[in-house]
């Protein structure tokens, strides 16, 4: 079944981030329009107040009817009372749209990470991806919220103020309009530097996240070898780089804000002095109320322009985060399954036909000319020194990587034509380090399966030699295993992983060094469980200890990516070849 598409899938194609944001909000357009209209009403007192104040001053100075004072006051009170409901409507529509879009972005990132190839994930730090999902989306949400709240306030204040000035004192309007182009020039001059500095800072933080992730995962090794200072030194190096980049970014923002404020305030002082001289000598027909209104408006509009310019680093940070997400959402290294044949049943026959694979296009072959026919139900053991190509064969079998040359057939069909996600429903993997998530034993065994009967879970645990120790736990099946199964021993975790494989009843089974990290007693229990798991299935076993593969139907001895020997345990020992040498070296 195809994964649902996310809001940015096939939308981010290198265009400007603002265009990407427009694509993101396409389903929220009506709410955004309502939010803007509500904001206009709720924010209207800011630009109406100077006008009403001017009217009241003129009413008092010119001794006009007191009823006009009552009307002006009533208008302002009504507008103020409308602020409460329109503000709530604005928050519901605008902030709700931003939150929903942020959630959609995180969902799109998680879906895309599931679609990206294993090769991509081997090249990319998990901590960096986590930073994108959490920090970058948060940056976008913050940038949008502040841009909406402060940006709309500034724009509506500017528009309303300039409209009032243009209607009441049109002679003063050209002076006001000087502020906008002056500020725009200042913003455009610094925007490029702000963008590059924000990108540098973001990459430094991602590198720090990677360093911290490495440090936490290596704490047991660090403590065991007394390397605490070395570990701290590595993190401190990244911290110093983040500090330096952050200070440079803050200084640049400081220069930007200070220059903007000084420029606008200087213009304001000049305008105020000019307006005072004009009113004093009566060069233009400006009333006392107009003088107060113009003075107030200039301060208000100056603050609005300053607010707009102060949003530049926030917007730049948000747009840089959009670009950061695009690095994941646009990456072409996908496992493409669209349009391919869905696998509905598997007998278990696997044929490798002259398969060659290179991790680098121009590099040496990790596997070369590998040919092997495996009938359903046969157990194949892959043995050889490190780097012989065993894990590459397993990755090819699972479909994590594709052959550079040759092909792999599943029940006679080229796997390149199959939807590998549907194929993997018939395959289970028990790795060397079992991967458990922080949940109950029941949830870990039935992971990805809906409404599994408890009897099936217990049956799988029994087949994995795990039911006895699970029943002794205080909460039984509902016992929380901790992060990565930390509350269980290595043997217990491995038996839970075997139970997870058993409950799926796979047709093809991959055992990758499944007992190499266990003590003798745990290995015996796990080995017995694996023998039950392997019955009637096509099995591929990779094992470092040759004692664990004696019962395999065929043992494939690999060296430098090629098959050197094939046969049973006793047969290979009689030949006295590479397998016999490996056996001898382990016994010596």
What proportion strand? 5-15%
**Number of helical elements:** 20
C-alpha geometry:
elongated
Q: Share of helix among residues?
A: 55-70%
Average pLDDT value? 78
Structural class label: alpha/beta
Largest sheet report: 6 strands, mixed
The H/E string reads: HHHHHHHHHHHEEEHEEHEHHHHEHEEEHH
What is the radius of gyration computed over CA atoms, rounded to a whole number of angstroms?
Answer: 35 Å
Count of DSSP strands: 10
Unreliable segments of 5+ consecutive residues: 1-10
User: How widely separated are the two ends?
Assistant: 52 Å
Main sheet: strand order: 6-7-8-3-9-10
Multimeric status of the protein: single chain
Explain the overall architecture.
- This protein has 588 residues and is of the alpha/beta class.
- The radius of gyration is 35 Å and the shape is elongated.
- The protein contains 20 helices and 10 strands.
- The strands form 2 sheets. It has a 6-stranded mixed beta sheet with strand order 6-7-8-3-9-10, with helices on both faces. Strands 2-1-4-5 form a 4-stranded antiparallel beta sheet, covered by helices on one side.
């Amino acid at each position: 079944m195809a994964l649902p598409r996310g809001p940015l899938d096939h939308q981010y194609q290198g265009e400007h981030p603002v265009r990407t944001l427009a694509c993101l909000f396409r389903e929220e357009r009506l709410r955004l329009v309502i939010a803007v209209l509500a904001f206009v009403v709720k924010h209207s007192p800011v630009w109406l107040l100077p006008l009403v104040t001017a009217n009241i001053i003129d009413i008092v100075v010119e001794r006009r009817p007191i009823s006009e004072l009552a009307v002006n006051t009533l208008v302002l009170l009504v507008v103020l009372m409308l602020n409460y409901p329109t503000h709530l409507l604005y928050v519901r529509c605008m902030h709700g749209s931003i939150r929903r879009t942020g959630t959609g972005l995180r969902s799109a990132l998680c879906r895309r990470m599931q679609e990206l190839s294993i090769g991509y994930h081997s090249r990319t730090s998990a901590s960096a991806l986590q930073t994108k999902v959490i920090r970058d989306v948060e940056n976008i949400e913050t940038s949008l919220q502040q841009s909406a709240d402060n940006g709309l306030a500034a724009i509506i204040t500017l528009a309303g103020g300039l409209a009032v000035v243009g209607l009441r004192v049109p002679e003063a309007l050209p002076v006001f309009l000087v502020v906008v182009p002056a500020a725009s020039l200042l913003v455009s001059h610094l925007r490029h530097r702000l963008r590059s500095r924000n990108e540098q800072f973001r990459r430094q933080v991602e590198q720090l996240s990677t360093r911290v992730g490495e440090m936490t995962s290596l704490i047991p090794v660090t403590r065991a070898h007394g390397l605490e200072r070395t570990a701290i030194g590595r993190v401190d190096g990244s911290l110093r780089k983040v500090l330096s980049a952050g200070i440079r970014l803050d200084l640049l923002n400081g220069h930007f804000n200070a220059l903007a404020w000084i420029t606008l305030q200087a213009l304001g002082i000049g305008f105020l002095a000019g307006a005072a001289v004009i009113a004093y000598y009566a060069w233009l027909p400006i009333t006392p109320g107009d003088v107060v209104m113009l003075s107030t408006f200039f301060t208000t509009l100056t603050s609005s322009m300053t607010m707009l310019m102060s949003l530049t680093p926030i917007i730049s940070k948000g747009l840089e985060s959009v670009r950061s997400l695009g690095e994941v959402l646009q990456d072409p290294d996908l496992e493409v399954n669209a349009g391919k044949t869905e696998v509905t049943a598997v007998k278990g026959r696997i044929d490798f036909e002259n398969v060659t694979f290179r991790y680098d296009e121009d590099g040496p072959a990790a596997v070369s000319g590998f040919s092997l026919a495996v009938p359903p139900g046969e157990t194949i053991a892959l043995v050889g020194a490190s780097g012989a190509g065993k894990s590459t064969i397993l990755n090819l079998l699972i479909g994590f990587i594709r052959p550079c040359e040759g092909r792999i057939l599943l029940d006679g069909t080229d796997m390149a034509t199959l939807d590998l996600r549907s194929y993997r429903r018939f395959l289970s993997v028990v790795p060397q380090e079992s991967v458990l998530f922080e949940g109950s034993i029941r949830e870990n065994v039935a992971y990805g399966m809906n409404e599994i009967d408890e009897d099936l879970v217990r049956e799988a645990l029994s087949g994995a030699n795990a039911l006895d120790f699970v029943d002794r736990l205080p909460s039984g099946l509902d016992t929380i295993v901790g992060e990565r199964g930390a509350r269980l021993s290595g043997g217990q975790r491995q038996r839970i992983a075997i139970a997870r494989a058993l409950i799926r009843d796979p047709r093809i089974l991959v055992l990758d060094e499944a007992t190499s990290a266990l003590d003798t007693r745990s290995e015996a229990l796990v080995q017995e469980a694996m023998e039950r798991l392997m019955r009637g299935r096509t099995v591929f076993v990779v094992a470092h200890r040759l004692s664990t593969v004696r019962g395999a139907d065929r043992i494939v001895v690999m060296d430098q990516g090629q098959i050197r020997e094939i046969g049973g345990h006793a047969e290979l020992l009689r030949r006295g070849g590479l397998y016999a040498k490996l056996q001898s070296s382990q016994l010596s």
